[in-house]
């Protein structure tokens, strides 16, 4: 989950900015701020639980993939040890069996990767939505023209007084406390 967090957060926030429009700063002044999305996600209520759930599910999937890989490797090893004694027809059959097993392994691995990606999105989407909503609230209240994500390498150098990460985290924690905590 730690990978792609910054890019997803920026895309979500920018998508919301595009749909809602930017609040016009007073007197035409440009007001900028930045956040560290990695720190925000790490401290958002529910994020640790989502990460733990995902890692638990990934461990099961990885275990299944490892079992399939071991089975395939055993089949290959047995064939290599016996191939000299096999008739040409039987050798060809075994090669086809190994090829079929390899294709099944590749299909199942691809299916599990898709399932893992889908599950990760399911777990983190509510968290990203909460973060994006808080960012939009703060953007509107503070009349920020733009809020950048320092974790997404969008900020090369900036005045630390423009960092509103702590404000976002405080708001997220307060909202979670008001709603009774939890991931959703």
Can you give a write-up of this model?
It contains 5 helices and 2 strands, in the order αβαααβα. With 184 residues, it is mostly helical. It has a single domain, classed as Protein Binding, DinI Protein, Chain A. A two-stranded parallel sheet has the order 1-2. Helix 2 runs parallel beside helix 5 and helix 3 runs antiparallel to helix 4.
Give the topology string: H per helix, E per strand.
HEHHHEH
Count of domains? 1
Major sheet, described briefly?
2 strands, parallel
Overall 3D form? elongated
The overall pLDDT average reads: 84
The overall strand count is 2
Task: Report the CATH architecture.
Answer: 2-Layer Sandwich
Helix content: 55-70%
Query: pLDDT under 50 segments (min length 5)?
Result: 16-25
- Indicate the proportion of strand residues: under 5%
State the gist of this model:
The chain has 184 residues and is mainly α.
Structure keywords:
Protein Binding, DinI Protein, Chain A; 184 residues
How are the secondary structure elements laid out?
Elements: H1 5-20, E1 32-35, H2 37-43, H3 47-82, H4 88-142, E2 146-149, H5 165-178
Parallel strand pairs: 1-2
Helix pairs in contact: 1-4, 2-5, 3-4, 4-5
